[in-house]
Description:
Low-confidence stretches: 172-176, 178-186
Shape: globular
Number of helices: 11
Strand content: 25-35%
Structural class: alpha/beta
Number of domains: 2
CATH architecture of the largest domain: 3-Layer(aba) Sandwich
Order of helices and strands: EHEEEHEHEHEHHEHHEEHEHEHE
Largest sheet: 6 strands, mixed
Number of strands: 13
Mean pLDDT: 91
Distance between the termini: 31 Å
CATH topology of the largest domain: Rossmann fold
Amino acid sequence: MALRIITDSASDLPKTLAEKHQIEVLPLIVYLNEVEHLDSVTIEPNDMYKAMIKGASVKTAQIPLNHFLDYFEKFAQTGDDYIYLAFSSGLSGTYQTSMLAYETVKEEFPDFKMTIIDTKCVSLGLGVIVVETAKLVQVGASYDEVMSYVTRAIGQMKHVFSVDDLDYLLRGGRVSKSQAMIGNLLNIKPILHVVDGFLVPFDKAKGKKKLLAKLYEYIEANGRGLDNQLVGIAHTLNEEEATEVKNHFETVYGTRNFIINTLGCAVGAHCGPGMITIFFKNEF
C-alpha cells in the first residue's frame, strides 16, 4: 500500500514535474467560444490566451461530480491511500464537489482512504506545496509527517498577483466597470493577494516599473528564508517580466530553486494575457 498525491489543474504544475514526482493532476473545465475543454489536456494555456486577445469568450467550471466519481472509483481500486490537495474553496466549488464524490465512492469502497484538503491556495501557491509534499512521499515520509508539512505550508504561503488588462477582472467581478475603464486609460495595474483563500485587491501601480517595485516591496515585507525556498512564478504571455522577477530573487536573496510556468487555463481565464504572479513563504 502506497501513499499517493493528487491535485487539480489549478495548481498550474508543469507536466514534467507532475510526472517526475508521480502527481495525479485532475483537470478543471474550460469553455472557449462555448466549446468544452479539459484544462491543459485538450487545450493549452497559450492557445487560450492568444484566442482571448482576438476576442474569444472564455468561461471556466469546476471539476464535475461525474468526473470526480470516475477518478475516485479508479483510485479506490488500487488499494493505495491518497491525499488530494485541492484548489481554494474560496475561488471554486471543486473542493466541495470532491468531498461529495469521496463520500459517494466510499459507500461502494469502504476501505478507500483519501484525505481531501482545502489548501486555500491557487496556481503555483498550490503547486509548490504539492511538489514538496510529493517529494516527502517519495523519500518515505509517514502520513503524519506529510500532513504536518502540508498544514504548516498552507499557513505560510503568500500569493501576489498583477494583471495587465482590468477588463478580465471586471468580468470576474473583482473590479467595477468605472475602475476598469479608468485603470486601463491611465495604465494603472491592480495588485492582489490571497486572504483566507480569496483573491483580494490591496494596492495598485502605474506602469511596469512602479508595478515591479511594489511587487518587490511586498516580497521583502512578507518573505522569510527566500534563499532556501522553492519559489513559484507564473505568467500569461509575459515571459519577460517572469524572467525579471526570477533575476530579482537570485540577485537580492540568492534564491536558486524555482518553478516557472504559464498560468493554466482555469485561473488564467479570469486574469487574461500579460499578468504576473509570484508565490513564496513567509517562513522557512
